[in-house]
Amino acid sequence: MQHESSYHYRVIGRAIEAIDRAGGGTLPLDALAAEVGLSPAHLQRVFSAWVGVSPKRFQQYLTLGHARTLLRERFTTLETAGSVGLSGTSRLHDLFVTWEAMSPGEYASGGAGLEVFWGWFDSPFGPALVMGTDKGICGIAFAAESGEDAAMADLRGRWPNAAFAEAPDRLAPWVAAAFGTAPQQKVPLVLIGAPFQIKVWEALVTIPSGQVTTYSEIAAAIGRPRAVRAVGTAVGRNPVSFLIPCHRAIRKTGGLGGYHWGLPVKRAILAWESARAEA
Fold first, then answer.
1. DSSP state of 25
2. Angle separating helix axes 263-278 and 4-21, nearest 10 degrees
3. Are 139 and 158 in contact (CB under 8 A)?
4. Torsion angle of alpha carbons 76, 78, 79, 85, nearest 10°?
5. Active site residues
């Protein structure tokens, strides 16, 4: 069964490829529609349903230079990102995210004694594998670029000694809130990582939607200004994509940097958030 949001993401993926082939310039609606294999009217409906703006407007957010524009116009200094600082809770995606971290010992055990539930869900960025404990979501992987088998192996490998059980119904209310179909519901997160990683992930959660920061800014915010490379590694190891917004961390040159689930997904998420913030 074809899910609507995942279908929209596939169209966006083809649009990114078409825009890159065109050298980053704005393609007329007819030309872009031909590139992605849709009629102009259908393409207009897909973009409007996915993000609420026209294809012409949305192309501005999909270009390779969009990260530099965000860095210039929507840069976040984490020291003033929000009154909540680096702990507690933060407004994110029009929902309320709360989080707690597992102890270093629980992380070091590889998830021994932990029961992790999992399920596949439709998302605005393609198929999403979501994992959680009885306390909250502990993993979100996007499979559009990596494939479902690789996404499953990746998340399961984070906690190799845990017991895994397929139980999408247990996760569905949190997932609905996470992707906006049940707004204003709390989404609890469980951060399972090394202490340094968790500090980085907590900093990421304070970056407002539609804005970006840099790896060096994160390093300074957690009191480790010289640990930029280690911060980049910790950002890349974030297991809860989108809700812990590692996609909002970019290089200070304006380059996108890496993204664990594929750069096309990172570009699409940044474009989606930018369009929603400015619509």
1. P
2. 100
3. yes
4. 130
5. 246
The pTM for the full model equals 0.86
DSSP 27: P
- Please check the confidence at residue 94 and state whether its pLDDT lies above 50: no
Give the separation between CA 274 and CA 62, rounded to whole angstroms: 10
Share of the chain above pLDDT 70, in %: 90
Closest CA to 50 of 90, 15, 23, 102: 15
Per-residue model confidence as pLDDT tens digits over 205-225: 888 888 899 999 999 989 999
Which tokens belong to 129? Answer: 């594998």
User: What span, in angstroms and rounded, lies between the C-alpha atoms of 139 and 126?
Assistant: 16
pLDDT tens for each residue of 15-53: 888 888 887 667 899 999 999 999 999 999 988 888 888
Element (H, E) at 204: helix 195-205
Which helix (H) or strand (E) segment holds residue 85: the answer is none
Residue identified by tokens 């915010």 is 221
Q: Tokens for 159?
A: 């906690």
Euclidean distance between CA atoms 47 and 8, whole angstroms: 8
What burial class does residue 206 get, using C-beta atoms within 10 Å of its C-beta: 0-12 exposed, 13-18 middle, 19+ buried? buried
